[in-house]
Amino acid sequence: MLFHTKISTFASLICLAAVVAGCSGSQPPASSAGDASKSPADAAKSVNAAASVQIPSLRLAWGNSGYPSPFAFSASGPAGFLRNSFLFDTLTWKDEKGVIPWLAKSWKVSDDGLTYTFELEQGVKWHDGQPFTADDVVFSFDYYKKFPFMWTGDISQIASVSKTGDSTVAFKLNSKYAPFLSDLVGIVPIIPKHVWEKVDKPVEFRDASALVGTGPYTLKEYDSKSGQYLYQANDSYFKGKVKVKEVAYLNPANKLLALQKDEIDASYSLSYADVEKMTKEGLDVIKSAPTGSALRVTFNLEHPQLKDKKLRQAIAYALDRSEMARKLTGGEPIVGNAGIIPPDSPWYNPKVKNYAYDTAKAEQLLDELGYKKNAEGVRADLKLNVMVSSTSPEAQVMQEMLKKVGVALNLQQVDAATFSTAMGENKYDMAITGHIGLSGDPDFLRLWFLGKANNTLAARGKTFDNAEFQKLAESQKAELDPTKRKAIVDELQNVLAEELPTLVLYHRPFYFMYKKNVFDGWFNTYDGIADGIPLWDNKVAFIDGGK
Fold first, then answer.
1. Rounded CA gap, 122 and 214, in Å?
2. What are the phi and psi torsion angles at 212 (to 5°)?
């Protein structure tokens, strides 16, 4: 039976199960990432109580993100990681309050901050019935050193992983690493040794056992052509009862129309106009908090003209980014922080340099650079291209705004594969890309600009050649005192704002539109899922926290 047929069949079984609500779009007070005092019961609690009856199905909208094994999903966005997280678990995870125990029920940190010892949950089973053990944890991290996980999680920080007891493992680090609990063991999934020890080409491995994890779901079907997924609840999940029996990810051509026609139960949008429309039709909405997303211009710092920061600054002054955001997204615009971290993040530096719309300042800088206007008012010696991977209203608005200061901007629209290749090979002038994951730990700045991020749209494999940035980036990751680390991250933002290797046009909230009568367990994950993903596909939402 074809996947789309099966989806239609099980979708008709949706019941209007009552789920006690408790969603909040507000950001809770900051919690300690190293808080291991929570009990296993607290760890699995979501914002709402368990439904008395398991919900038969839930239909969500998203596109194809590849085969969801830890080595084969697409790294072009967060969906692949999220699809994988339904199948595989990590030692820690996050809920609406912060980092919580997961496969590890507790941990201790050595006085020097270099050794983390985890006590593991016992009685956990892999999907194939084999027991989960400390050997699996040790094997996983050794295996990832040979065959990298598809998402972030800086394995290079780990010196060794060893089994110290039947249910304990110790991680020794090369140096202190502040986001270890959230951005390493909270991201990198544990895989079964009995499956992967026999595999020497993990990217190509497509046996059914490639998807054997300990997670709350198993994959019932995946249609690689349509990009649709059907997950089935793991009835023996160690964290408790899974509240939704089947979760389908569908790929409708028009998400709003699919919501209106009752073909899906929830979807997301970046447009406030969509929110207004769907609210009138009775849907509930959650706004991502913190924002966690940005639309940005990446500059090729090897370009003969753009390598001069004064030109990058002139472009920043020439763009009315507030008007751009208001026009293209609606709602209250959040002008991009020149230091990249969103203004609603606790890591934001409120004193960072920014570039208010100032065409006179832009003109002054361009004149100082020697790009004089001709009789037609065009700076003929400055011809720049901006590359986009789809129709980009931002690029069109940018073109019009730069025209006002005499800069002719040419738009280059390419397909996604060409875009990714050009970014990797530095064959572009400027590129416009959307990016999410800015609401988590600020170490993402180090990964982005030292060429270590796995997201293909975040890193070009190039290092930002700035000695001050590199020194601060390494310093902040090794500082375990939150107050001292915040001061370093503030300085990091100052360097980025001055040098402008990238310019955030605006920070954009995601809006999640859903049918409350189908499922009402959604919440905003504190600091975003894993490394700051501001979406709602958190498996905690689907688990009865009563255990």
1. 12
2. -80, 115
Tell me how far apart the alpha carbons of residues 188 and 183 are, in angstroms, rounded to a whole number.
8
- Could you tell me if 60 and 267 are in contact, meaning their C-beta atoms sit under 8 angstroms apart? yes
DSSP state, 147? S
Cα 49 vs. chain centroid, distance in angstroms? Answer: 27
Per 3-state DSSP, the chain is made up of helix, strand and coil in percentages (nearest 5) of 30, 20, 50
Q: Kindly report, residue by residue over 316-363, the tens digit of the pLDDT.
A: 999 999 999 998 888 788 999 999 999 999 999 999 999 999 999 999
Measured CA to CA, the distance from residue 178 to residue 483 in angstroms comes to: 12
Distances, alpha carbon 262 to alpha carbons 60, 283, 537, in Å = 11, 11, 20
Supply the DSSP symbol for 533: B
Neighbours of 39 (CB within 10 A): 11
Distances (CA, A) of 485 to 25, 441, 450, 497: 27, 11, 19, 18
36/278: higher pLDDT: 278
**All residues at 6 or more sequence positions from 309 whose CB lies less than 8 Å from its CB, including other chains:** 498, 499, 500
| pLDDT tens-digit readout, 202-238 | 999 999 999 999 999 999 999 999 999 999 999 999 9
Identify whether the C-beta of residue 527 lies closer than 8 Å to the C-beta of residue 94.
Answer: yes
Within 10 angstroms of residue 491's Cβ, the number of other Cβ atoms is: 18
The residues, ordered by sequence, that sit 6+ positions from 446 with a Cβ below 8 Å of its Cβ are 452, 473, 474, 476, 477
This prediction's pTM: 0.85
**Beta strands per DSSP E along 51-209:** 55-61, 92-94, 99-101, 104-109, 115-120, 158-165, 168-173
Residues 508 and 436: their CA atoms lie apart, in Å, by 9
Query: Which residues are CB-neighbours of 433 under 8 A, at least 6 positions away?
Result: 295, 296, 298, 389, 423, 457
φ/ψ of 199, rounded to 5, equals: -110, 120
Q: Which residue, 148, 145, 101, 139, is CA-closest to 120?
A: 101
Using CA atoms, how far apart are residues 253 and 232, in angstroms rounded to an integer?
24
Pair type for strands 168-173 and 115-120: antiparallel
Q: Print the SS3 string covering 150-170.
A: CCCCCHHHEEEEEEEECCEEE
Report the first-to-last Cα separation within the chain, whole angstroms.
37
CB atoms within 10 A of CB 323: 14
The answer to whether residues 244 and 217 touch, using CB atoms and an 8 Å cutoff, is no
Sign of CA dihedral 144, 145, 150, 152: positive
DSSP letter, residue 238: T
Query: Please, what is the angle between helix 482-499 and helix 309-318, to 10°?
Result: 90
pLDDT at residue 455, rounded to an integer: 56
